[in-house]
Amino acid sequence: MTTPHTSVTGNLRVPAPYNEPPRDFAPGSTEATLLLKEVDRVRGQVRELPSVIGGERLRLDTPTAVVAPHDHAHVLGHFSPAGEREVTAAIQAALRARPAWSRTPWWDRTAIFLRAADLVTGKYRDELLATTMLGQSKTFHQAEIDINELADFFRYNASFAAQIYDGQPFSVPGVWNVMDHRPLEGFVLAITPFNFTAIAGNLPATPALMGNVVVWKPSEKSALSSDVVMRVFEEAGLPPGVINLVHGFGAEVTAIAQRSEHLAGITFTGSTAVFRQLWKSTAANIDHYRSYPRLVGETGGKNAVVAHPSADPEALVTALVRGAFEYQGQKCSAASRTYVPRSLWQSIEQPLVDTTAGLRVGDVSRHDTFIGAVIDGGAAQRLEQAIERGKALDSHELLAGGTTRTDQGWFVDPTIFRTTDPRAITMSEEYFGPLLSVYVYNDDEWEQTLQLVDETSDYALCCSIFAGDRHAVAQALDVLRDAGGMTYVNDKPTGASIGQQSFGGSRGSGTNDKTGSPLALQRWITGRLIKENFSPAHDWTYPYMGRRG
Ligand code: NAD
Cα(first)–Cα(last) distance of the chain, in Å? Predict the structure, then answer.
């Protein structure tokens, strides 16, 4: 890869970013018909999903099947898990690409990702949707907002990068101070989760936009859509070796990458336990790294919806149904515990239970499906055990669901428990599935309840406050200040829009580096300050020393 020469001069302005509007996919609409045709096309193939290293596609030597979670006998493709040889080759390809890429003008890098955004919402849109629907079991709407978010990331990040490069230090007469926003020295390892194609694409793209080179290990459970994302990067003009895709299993790939002295950072989204492990194993290798690797992790959540007696009952039911059960509850931001005052519970219990019981669980390409399958057999089994544990607790009453069906797909019915124990495991542990736990409190215990919300779980990702009373909103915002990186007032905790509600949580939920904002890009640069003196001193003495001689 050679360093591009550019003949552009000027302080370039990036096109204004915007959020891609979601399409409706009403039954019989042109967009729904075209998408279903694409779903059929993808379903009718068995795709080869190769690792892509330095622009080369590797042959599959130990094929591992990728199946549709809602139809698990159906094989959609195969990948080969990367081992020592492939990961080492990916690191070498990245390091070879670094000299030219790190010197490529920022607007040339930005233009590639803006082109990628247009490919996501244009040529590849339906293929990305179809692979996300089939491979990750998302409904029309869930797949659409996911893919739109990928384009939103690329467009907003372009604008955030420009803002960052604009940031320059003050200078005094005779001096010019310049901040060189350098990429990190080495390569960045991106480890991505299965649940959002947008996150899978954004995690490697963000460091690359800032001039870094990347080894990207997508989730083995989203290999089908990750393959399309990689093709988008390539077609957008990303030079070979800047992002290297290695399919495979996290622990193996990470252990090999962590042995390289050139590991400059890890960008991870996934579970809290894995991130803690990554932190420890990186620290254990610290003596042989050339720099201190940056660790960015967005992890689990146990997101609370807390309602005040003044809350709007219908809005609350809608937020709980959508917040807890959309995409089978497999969102880090999903509502999974709720606190409802006794007076309000009387009016919402029946509508909440009836609506939940009426949600259709099944094949995501049917228009009447609200809930698809959970990602794999392991997830279904883990959720079944959690449900059985809940049923066995004296403090728990099963209000809806409580059943799993795994013969054709890994289906878990949306489940609601009511608990009389506000510190029960169902109020504190992340299940990452369609499980909602309800605690009904006495109306005069609002303030104690806010304390409970704050103290019950180790996570601090999202929380929602439902109240009509402004004073109650202010109280909740105060008590829950550290309980969530995102706090919603009279809205569900899911569905953050890029550029509007930047995303991230603290405590056990991560390093809170706020994707969808300039803060997330800041982690992938390391400043070099350049001071240029226009009038260098010629006399080494200072006035306080008096005249010499
Ligand atoms: P996961 O932790 O099982 O896997 C995430 C990635 O880590 C995958 O690529 C996987 O292969 C890899 N991995 C697994 N074990 C590893 C190990 N020992 N070492 C290194 N890498 C390893 O998570 P998941 O099931 O893909 O996603 C669900 C989790 O992600 C949930 O906990 C959810 O809350 C979280 N999540 C958080 C956010 C956020 O922004 N906070 C967003 C999405 C998902």
Answer: 60
Q: Under 8 Å CB-to-CB from 160, ≥6 apart: which residues?
A: 517, 518, 520, 521
Fold of 303-489: Aldehyde Dehydrogenase; Chain A, domain 2 (3.40.309)
Known catalytic membership, residue 298: yes
| Antiparallel, parallel or unpaired: β 213-217 and 187-191 | parallel
Closest CA to 489 of 356, 371, 315: 315
Q: Is the C-beta atom of 211 inside 6 A of ligand 1?
A: no
Rounded Cα–Cα distance for residues 10 and 264 (Å): 32
Is residue 330 within 6 Å of ligand 1 at its C-beta? no
Distance between CA 539 and CA 73 in Å, rounded? 82
Residue extents of the structural domains in the chain = 31-299+510-531, 303-489
Per residue in 258-284, pLDDT (tens digit) is 999 999 999 999 999 999 999 999 999
For residue 28, give Cα distances in angstroms to 38, 273, 366: 15, 44, 12
Asked if residue 529 has pLDDT above 60, the reply is: yes
User: The CATH number of 31-299+510-531 is which of 3.40.605.10, 3.40.1010.10, 2.40.50.140, 3.40.50.720?
Assistant: 3.40.605.10
Give residue-wise pLDDT tens across range 52-107.
999 999 988 899 999 999 999 999 999 999 999 999 999 999 999 999 999 999 99
266: left (phi over 0), alpha (psi -120 to 50) or beta: beta
pLDDT of residue 181: 98
DSSP string for residues in 125-168 = HHHHHHHHHHHH---HHHHHHHHHHHHHHHHHHHHHHHHHHH--
Q: Average pLDDT, stretch 124-140?
A: 98
Report which DSSP code applies to 536.
-
- How remote is the CA of residue 510 from the centroid of ligand 1, in Å? 12
Residues 6+ apart with CB under 8 A from 439: 337, 338, 339, 340, 418, 419, 420, 422, 427, 452
Catalytic (active site) residue 462: no
Question: What is residue 548's predicted lDDT score, i.e. its pLDDT?
Answer: 58
Q: Cα separation of 434 and 218, whole Å?
A: 24
- The answer on pLDDT for 379 being more than 90 is yes
| Active-site entry in 38, 144, 298, 326 | 298
